[in-house]
């Protein structure tokens, strides 16, 4: 009979999982710790690591027991078996009669578990020695235990059942694709990977990826599309991690000959939402399901848990949504930062707008840094200290990484001072601006951030203009004098930037009949994504309370903005007068003043339009909807 050895360092869950597995398989369970002689137990209780001489007799006893169990009903044994030579000593029966199940996780995770244990003789201090001793096997099942015990057991049973094929396959092993594949595997999701093989361009990408990770995960890999698709469970779920644009269409076209009705393609790239709508319509005629899933978090998020924004047919999400939810980041309540956003292109629209807000937040931090660095003659280290203080309240990921950036040195000089001031962009911010123009929604801060990147790219022209205008950086103020007002201005600018972004989502939801749940979108943006912050947490309740109203109309926000408005307009005025551009803060101030102005300048615009083009206008002394034209010059 089969003997299953559940191995790993202390605290990884060998006993808990072993007992569950034994019950599932209806075989006896044994804990190797119960076979330690009293002398070994005494050493461990005293925090003294065991030596090989201590383990020798213990391993011999276990080997004899394994032989007995194999001849009987089989068994599940929980045993650390940290070194290869220990495992060889335990193999008193044929290799095919032992199934090794290696449970593993990060050191910090296991240390936290051990520290929480009570009435157990193993001391947490011994954990480091176990990690130092551990030699990972290159065989058996490798199971990451950062999941619930039920999910771990499910994964083990799935691996024991050789008939099951992976539920999902991934195409495209770039940085994000590799990270997502590792994330799936770490969460117990069997996944097949594919990458094209092109001589002298993309050579053995899939093979090398599988080889590099074989000690921890088993990745079935392919560079043949037909075999890749045949390796998947029907109906198939395939996630594409390729560059947005024509590459997505090329991959879809190459997949189609091998797909069957009800197979599902998930585009996990930054595709334009209109392309997603078009692709879903085309594939629907072929009987193929299609979802556009925005994924935010960068390389680290993809690996450890991103925010995921899938859009498409509800039946497609019902089938594959659990897979996406497994790899997503978790919010403060432990719920996945992943939700079915809405139909057709909604997922990619929401991701596009996420990136637009991200543009605004990044520029807001950048221009604040710039004003402090030169306008207040402040060092990067001093700015880092200030930003760190601000972030105790803001809890902004972008502000957090900016602190690290400002402290980074190279050759004893601040690296930030060596980086060329010409920003790149991938286009999603500009897409947000285009969408806002189409939907007739103001997008001041996001558009200003996009255009700030555009003008930054004109480095040579800017340097020439600086010389022509005799422009020089000059100290305009002192950090101590403006720090409080600058923080108020920064916070107000960030709130206005978010309000503008969610206003565009609201209008898109109405126009495209997507029925977006803005509160739920805010929730999945509280972890894993680039724009996570404490304010995003606040937006969950604000948008739940008033889902159809501009964020700036919420009573709490009104109070906060009213208290910050003088600082916002004051800082903008002071910086502009001193010669320092604040494009996003200026846009935020102008938007606020325009948004809260009962009387705008648009009556003059309407008069001008009617004057030169007979476009007509409405009157304040007549009902709305009635239009008038005036002969402005008497003949």
Helical run tally: 26
Fold-level CATH name of the largest domain: N-(1-d-carboxylethyl)-l-norvaline Dehydrogenase, domain 2
CATH class of the largest domain: Mainly Alpha
Number of strands: 14
Lateral strand order in the biggest sheet: 8-7-6-9-10-11-12
Q: How large is the radius of gyration?
A: 30 Å
Query: How much of the polypeptide forms β-strand, as a percent range?
Result: 5-15%
Gap between N and C termini: 107 Å
Low-confidence stretches: none
Number of domains: 4
Q: Can you give the mean pLDDT?
A: 92
Secondary structural class: alpha/beta
CATH-level-2 architecture of the largest domain? Orthogonal Bundle
Largest sheet: 7 strands, mixed
Helicity range: 40-55%
Structural shape: globular
CATH H-tier superfamily of the largest domain? N-(1-d-carboxylethyl)-l-norvaline Dehydrogenase, domain 2
Function: Catalyzes the oxidative decarboxylation of 6-phosphogluconate to ribulose 5-phosphate and CO(2), with concomitant reduction of NADP to NADPH.
Protein name: 6-phosphogluconate dehydrogenase, decarboxylating
Domain 6-phosphogluconate dehydrogenase C-terminal: 347-633
InterPro entries: 6-PGluconate_DH-like_C_sf, 6PGD_dom2, 6PGDH_C, 6PGDH_Gnd/GntZ, 6PGDH_NADP-bd, NAD(P)-bd_dom_sf, P-loop_NTPase, Pgluconate_DH
């Amino acid at each position: 009979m089969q003997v299953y050895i559940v191995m790993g360092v202390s605290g990884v869950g060998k006993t808990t999982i072993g007992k569950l597995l034994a019950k599932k398989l209806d075989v006896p369970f044994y804990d190797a710790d119960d076979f330690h002689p009293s002398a070994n137990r005494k050493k461990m209780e005293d925090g003294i690591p065991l030596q090989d001489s201590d383990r020798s007799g213990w391993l011999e006893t276990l080997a004899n027991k394994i032989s007995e169990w194999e001849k009987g009903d089989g068994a599940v044994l929980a045993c650390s078996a940290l070194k290869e030579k220990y495992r060889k000593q335990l193999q008193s029966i044929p290799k095919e009669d032992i199934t090794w199940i290696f449970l593993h996780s990060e050191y910090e995770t296991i240390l936290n578990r051990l520290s929480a244990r009570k009435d157990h003789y193993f001391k947490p201090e011994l954990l480091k020695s176990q990690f130092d001793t551990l030699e990972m096997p290159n065989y058996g099942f490798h199971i990451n235990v950062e999941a619930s015990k039920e999910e771990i057991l499910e994964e083990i049973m799935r691996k024991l059942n050789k008939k099951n094929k992976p539920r999902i396959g991934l195409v495209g092993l770039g940085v994000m694709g590799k990270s997502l594949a590792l994330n799936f595997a770490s969460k117990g999701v069997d996944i097949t990977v594919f990458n094209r093989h092109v001589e002298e361009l993309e050579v053995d990408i899939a093979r090398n990826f599988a080889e590099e990770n074989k000690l921890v995960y088993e990745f079935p890999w392919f560079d043949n599309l037909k075999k890749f698709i045949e390796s998947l469970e029907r109906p198939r779920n395939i996630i594409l991690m390729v560059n947005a644009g024509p590459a997505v269409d090329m991959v879809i076209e190459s997949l189609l000959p091998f797909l069957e009705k009800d197979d599902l393609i998930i585009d996990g790239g930054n595709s334009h939402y209109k392309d997603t709508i078009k692709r879903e319509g085309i594939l629907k005629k072929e009987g193929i399901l299609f979802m556009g899933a925005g994924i935010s978090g960068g390389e680290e998020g993809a690996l450890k848990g991103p925010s995921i924004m899938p859009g498409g047919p509800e039946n497609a999400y019902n089938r594959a949504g659990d897979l996406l939810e497994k790899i997503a980041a978790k919010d403060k309540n432990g719920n996945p930062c992943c939700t079915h956003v809405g139909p057709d292109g909604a997922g990619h629209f929401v991701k596009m707008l996420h990136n637009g807000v991200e543009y605004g937040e990044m520029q807001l931090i950048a221009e604040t840094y710039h004003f402090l660095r030169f306008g207040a003659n402040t060092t990067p280290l001093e700015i880092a200290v200030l930003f760190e203080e601000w972030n105790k309240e803001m809890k902004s990921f972008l502000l957090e990484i900016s602190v690290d950036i400002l402290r980074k040195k190279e050759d004893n000089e601040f690296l930030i001072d060596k980086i060329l001031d010409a920003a790149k962009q991938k286009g999603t911010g500009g897409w947000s601006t285009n969408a806002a123009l189409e939907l007739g929604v103001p997008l001041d801060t996001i558009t200003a951030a996009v255009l700030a990147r555009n003008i930054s790219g004109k480095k040579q022209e800017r340097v020439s203009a600086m010389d022509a205008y005799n422009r020089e950086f000059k100290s305009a103020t002192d950090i101590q004098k403006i720090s409080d007002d600058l923080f108020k201005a920064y916070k107000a600018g960030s709130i206005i930037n978010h309000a503008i972004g969610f206003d565009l989502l609201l209008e898109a939801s109405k126009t495209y009949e997507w029925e977006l749940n803005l509160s739920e979108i805010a929730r999945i943006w509280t972890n894993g994504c680039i724009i996570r912050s404490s304010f995003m947490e606040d937006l969950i309740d604000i948008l739940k309370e008033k889902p159809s109203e501009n964020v700036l109309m919420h009573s709490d926000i009104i109070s906060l903005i009213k208290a910050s408005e003088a600082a916002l307009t004051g800082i903008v005025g002071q910086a502009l007068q001193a010669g320092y551009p604040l494009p996003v803060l200026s846009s935020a101030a102008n938007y606020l003043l325009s948004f809260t102005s009962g009387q705008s300048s648009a009556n003059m615009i309407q008069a001008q339009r009617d004057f030169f083009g007979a476009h007509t206008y409405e009157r304040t002394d007549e009902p709305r909807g009635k239009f008038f034209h005036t002969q402005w010059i008497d003949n």
